[in-house]
């Protein structure tokens, strides 16, 4: 089975470097990773109300971003914790922003995306504590 052309291009863009290259600041690796953060051509987010806020946490305030579909009354809440193994990512990366926006629209829910603190600056259990604090405070 052939890989979808969109994902094939993304795979080809990163296969020559590792996360260690990014951590060490390899300019080519950082540039390629930055390109991957951009949405695919033609993407436009659904009609949403998007707001940033903070909630208290055990290690200080935690930034969150809330997504609400403006066309409907949402039926539930999803807490979205972007990928990155508690080491990479932010609320603006494609996997966090676009996925939260689409999930809010397609599942008819309010999505609360968590900007948990990242390692290695914040060691375990701080990132996990941030996620638990958000989930328990809104549920």
How would you sum up this structure, described in words?
It is a single chain. 37% of the residues lie in helices and 19% in strands. The chain has five helices and four strands, in the order H-H-H-E-E-E-H-E-H. The protein has helices at residues 5-14, 19-23, 27-36, 94-107, 126-138; strands at 48-55, 62-69, 77-80, 110-115. It has a four-stranded mixed β-sheet. The longest helix is centred in the last third of the chain and has 14 residues, at 94-107.
Q: How far apart are the first and last residues' alpha carbons, in Å?
A: 42 Å
Shape label: flat
From the alpha carbons, calculate the radius of gyration and give it in angstroms.
Answer: 17 Å
SSE order, as H and E?
A: HHHEEEHEH
Largest beta-sheet characterization: 4 strands, mixed
- Going by helix content, strand content and strand pairing, the class is alpha+beta
Characteristic terms for this protein:
single chain; 139 residues; alpha+beta; four-stranded mixed β-sheet; flat
Quick overview of this protein structure:
The chain has 139 residues and is α+β, with helices and mostly antiparallel strands. The chain is built from five helices and four strands; from the N terminus they run H-H-H-E-E-E-H-E-H.
């Amino acid at each position: 089975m052939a890989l979808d052309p969109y994902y094939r291009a993304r795979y080809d863009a990163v296969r020559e470097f590792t996360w260690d290259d990014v951590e060490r600041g390899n300019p080519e690796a950082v540039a390629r990773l930055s390109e991957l953060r951009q949405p695919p051509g033609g993407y436009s987010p659904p009609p949403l109300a998007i707001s940033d806020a903070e909630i208290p946490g055990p290690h200080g305030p935690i930034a969150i971003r809330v997504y609400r579909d403006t066309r409907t009354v949402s039926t539930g809440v999803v807490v979205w914790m972007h990928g990155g193994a508690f080491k990479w990512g932010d609320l603006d990366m494609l996997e966090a922003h676009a996925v939260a926006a689409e999930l809010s629209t397609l599942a008819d829910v309010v999505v609360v995306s968590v900007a948990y603190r990242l390692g290695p600056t914040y060691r375990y259990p701080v990132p996990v504590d941030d996620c638990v604090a958000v989930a328990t405070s809104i549920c």
